[in-house]
Amino acid sequence: METGAWREGVKYAVCEANAYLRNGDQEELVLEAVDKVRPFDDGLLLEDIFGRRKFLRAKIKELALVDHKIILERE
Known about the structure:
By secondary structure, this protein is mainly beta. It has strands spanning 5-7, 10-12, 17-23, 26-40, 43-48, 53-56, 58-64, 69-74. Strand 5 (43-48) and strand 6 (53-56) form a beta hairpin.
């Protein structure tokens, strides 16, 4: 069975990522299978593939898409 999806004749992989909150050298998992990240003036709204949401007063520090990681830092 193939994974991924087709769009306009091109196959692409499903690319959810896990969100981590960085504190010094430590990374704490805050939400798995993140599908959407929405910026707001006072933080970020994360939403996973099941519709669960988490709001964090944080900013995006790094996107490591090959590793499926969103690294966040507190503001």
